Fold this sequence. Notes:
The complex is a heterodimer. Chain A is mostly beta strands. Chain A contains no helices and eleven strands. In chain A, the strands form two sheets. In chain A, strands 2, 4, 5, 9, 10 and 11 form a six-stranded mixed sheet that branches. In chain A, strands 1-3-8-7-6 form a five-stranded antiparallel sheet, with no helix packed on it. In chain A, strand 9 and strand 10 form a beta hairpin. Helix content of chain B is 0%, strand content 51%. Chain B starts with a strand and ends with a strand. In chain B, strand 5 and strand 6 (57-58) form a beta hairpin.
Amino acid sequence: GENVEQHPSTLSVQEGDSAVIKCTYSDSASNYFPWYKQELGKRPQLIIDIRSNVGEKKDQRIAVTLNKTAKHFSLHITETQPEDSAVYFCAAFDVSGTYKYIFGTGTRLKVLA
Amino acid sequence: GAVVSQHPSWVICKSGTSVKIECRSLDFQATTMFWYRQFPKQSLMLMATSNEGSKATYEQGVEKDKFLINHASLTLSTLTVTSAHPEDSSFYICSATQAPSETQYFGPGTRLLVL
């Protein structure tokens, strides 16, 4: 089955700096890769996603890149702000096969003011 | 749009009792609902996938007789934790998708504490 690894587990950056979180997946059939932000005690919120026919997607300060050959994808947050502090999860989803999400282990991002 | 509710948000129960958690899609028909469990400082672990009108598909290691899932309609799925024990204490989150989109919408979660 699918396995998703996520690094780093914790990340501290100064306000205004960039943050990068990386994930790798094992199943080449996975074709949809969402990223979620989860604040303490709350539900995960979708912040950006990418499909396997696209290499990069950007939404204001957030971008995601996908390398299908290497089976890894990354989340990039630029000009970080204290409110970006949260736990971020990547996930892989197989639309045509198992039809389920497998989550990465999470990255606790702390933006220092 | 695309709102998912969960009830209750908090539940405390005695060991050995059963607890039912409801997950509802409020403004769309959910062809598939997912149930996750999340322990403190850990990731979301998929427990089961539920399609309306059919039996749920459980992940390896999840006891189907302990975690009963019913998806009776396109807007409601329930998870019943039977004979709960302290180790079942966790944050349970459901999500729903509407075919053909794969975007999942999460409920707010239910925090279960078994004494």
